[in-house]
Hints:
- The protein is 38% helix and 14% strand.
- By secondary structure, the chain is α/β, with parallel strands linked by helices.
- The chain folds into four domains: 10-162, Rossmann fold; 177-302, 3-Layer(aba) Sandwich (Rossmann fold); 318-375, no CATH class; 389-663, Rossmann fold (3-Layer(aba) Sandwich), CATH 3.40.50.
- A six-stranded parallel β-sheet has the order 16-15-14-13-17-18, with helices on both faces.
- Helix 15 packs across helix 19.
Amino acid sequence: MAKDGYRIPLQVYVLWCPKLNADGLDVAKGAAISTELYALLCRDIDEPLTRGIGIPTYFRSVPGPGLDMPLGIDFDGAESICVIALIDSEMVIDSKWSAYLTEIQRRIAASGGRHGFVPVALDASAIGYLPIKNLNSVRYDLQKENASAFLRISVTHELCRMLDANSEPGKPGSAIRIFISHAKKDGNEEAKLLKERIEETHADRFFDAVSIAPGYEFAKEIEDGIRGSTVIALVTDRYSSRPWCRKEILLAKAYRRPIVVVDALEKEELRSFPYLGNCRVLRWTEDAYSIVLAALSETLRFEYQLRRLGELTRIGRFPKNARQLLRAPELLDFKGLGSGNSKGAKKPVVYPDPPLGVEETDAIREFCPTAEFLTATAPWPEPKLEGKRVGISISDSPDLAARGLSPNHLTDATYEIARNLLAFGAKLGYGGDLRKAGFTERMVEFVYSFEGEVDPSSLTNYEAWPVHTFGNRQRLAEVTNLITVEMLPLPDDVQGSPATPLDPLKPEERYVLARCFTEMRQRMHREIHARVVLAGASTKYTGKMPGILEEILIAIEGGAPVYLMGGFGGCAGVVADGVRGRAPVELTMDYQLEHNPGYRAFVPFYESKGNAPIDYPAFTTRLQTAGPGGLNNGLSESENLRLMESSDLDEINHLILRGLSTRFPS
Length: 666
């Protein structure tokens, strides 16, 4: 629970026993499934511009820091927590996992129905496993086909039941009801097949051919059916020409119900029904499992966002008179919003992330000029960051798995932070090379996709000499049309040849690299207005100190705002410890000499050139002296401590935007 009183509505933890191959990669079936569940429940990093459900989803597989088992679960960290245990033979034969799961199940059983537990049998050995002996399991092992879809449908439905607003405290909610809206003239066969697929799951369905008993009023039964349902609109050639089909969609919009549109056109429709827009759309498929999953996923997204917006309203994150929407705004949502006696008064409208593009908000404002758009993440009033460039310091962290995170969590964080900064007018700065699948490459692709047009000023990439000399020159030529690339020259006080790559194990060549990286970081500091810092390595760097440490020290000395996120570990976590008054072992010369090949010869060579000593005790003291207030970022001490500890992206983005809004008032 956040210190401002915000209660996260739901968190999910996925557990599995890892199986590492010779290269240290986890090849357990649970590892692959956990990635699928993260994409389903939180966000799909392969589709960074699409909205996800947004449920914070964490992993428990490898031992935590200093432990022989994964970190425990903070059952006070959210209003409800669901633990999904992916059980295979490796987990069954490990007594430590048995004790771990037994304790988790004990805590959940004592929660009075507040938390949930979903055991998944990946193979037959899970049946009869002592920690779940009396619990019904999801039988993944029995699914010869569509096992992945079966598991995702089962998990999604269970989470929907946990969030069911109509359920009694301590009891699971009722089955999710799905209303099949279709044209009988040409959609009956598809609707019947869809009905059969729904009946294979735990969900309920409303199908007018069998759900309305004789003697009951058709119109009232239809309206009552829609009021509590998720609607699947099965759009065939005749669908939009049928009055009842159109009315069903309008009723679903009026009752703020989840809608999934299924494109089952065979030839054409002469006029599409305009109010089918602003909904999730997918193609008809004969197995129909993907359609059922889409309907349940949309239901879960609605239920989660309903609770999240309600909780944010309760703590005063935005005005109590704000109109709350559970999907992106559309013109239907603004009925009556422009009327009233408060002429010219702002009409706040809150909706789930991600933010709308400017072209959409401008179009809506033509009909409702006083509308003020707010996302659940942004502070209110919303920040105005035009003309500000924010530097992003982010790279891989070796601590992710031990903290219950994964590379997907880190990539997701990169995209979400960039998305929110760009949405409120900021430009981005980044220092990195263009290696394949690296962070620079991801940033380039994301910024270009987000902007939707070529605006090279949106992202400036700073490349130190000799990175741009030996990097991917072809890719460098391509991205110069999309972003601004600053290729820094060799500093005047050093000599180097672009003929051969520099060897960081040779002190004289590492010296050149160190000077080049320092020059790049100082240049970047002069051209940005704030810096966001996340993850990064504390060892195996090729400069004079860990890159993120150097960037933070430069920013603190220069008075630039620093937004420091330590929850993902890495060097940012080490620096966060220093800012909180601790003395991390990673910030000692002995540690750095032990963990960095070639560093022992480099340090005296570097200092012999007249440079200031590489003084780790002084670095630690500087961080301790600065403290949270020395980050100069517009946040209070308690807010900075939350930012340094959190791995929740909603909270992280809110605090960054809040600090920037305070630091750079419009």
